[in-house]
Amino acid sequence: xASKHLRWVLLSLVPLAAxxxxxxxxxxxxxxxxKISAEFDKLMHCRVAVLVWTHPSTLFDYPYARFELATxxxxxxxxEMVRRKLxxxxxxxxxxxxFIQKNIDARIDPQAVGKAFKADYVVYxxxxxxxxxxxxxxxxxxxxxxxxxSVHDIGADIDQLRRYELAPVKCYYPEGSPILMTAxxxxxxxxxxxxxxxxxxxxKFYEYTVDL
Length: 212
What we know:
The structure is a single chain. Helix 3 (about 65-85) crosses helix 6 (about 185-200). By secondary structure, the protein is of the alpha/beta class. It contains six helices and eight strands. The protein has two domains: about 1-30; about 35-210, Double Stranded RNA Binding Domain, CATH 3.30.160.150. The termini are far apart. It has helices at about 1-30, 55-60, 65-85, 95-100, 110-115, 185-200; strands spanning about 35, 45-55, 90, 120-135, 135-155, 165-175, 180, 210. The radius of gyration is 25 Å and the shape is globular. The strands form two sheets. Strands 2, 3, 4, 5, 6 and 7 form a six-stranded mixed β-sheet that branches. It has a two-stranded antiparallel ribbon with strand order 1-8.
């Protein structure tokens, strides 16, 4: 008799357990996303120039690295801000590159670049590490770009803050194990690294969401 009663109790709990499992997603799962605020949110309705500095040794091996990085960053910044209805005018990176080719000192002078193009702000990216092959394993590819990022207010008065230092960027691609170097893989890894780096720089200027 006792065993029959126990069996009835267990059977009666089955629907209850099932209903609890159905409710679990509503209570505990949610959307699993988190909003990240912009580090610097003053670019809307402004004219912006992107200035990238790279070490001369980088340009010796990759002559167009500075221009390529500025182009990827500028494109990503413009596309994402416009998509969010945050109008912005980004100076053509080709014009910036032509200017600093003719004015060598401007490579490290955001104020000079900003004034030359009548920009409100200059996003200045100083690349301190630019690598696609590990010196210890040159047969493998893994993109790695480290950079500091600052914003220069070109129209600020002399007694106002003119430079805003943002969090540095460290970009790796792929994030896991490196991949074998081949004629096909080399340009693919380089482009993917550029895209990821540009995204990490550009997202400092608009709100976005991440998966938890």
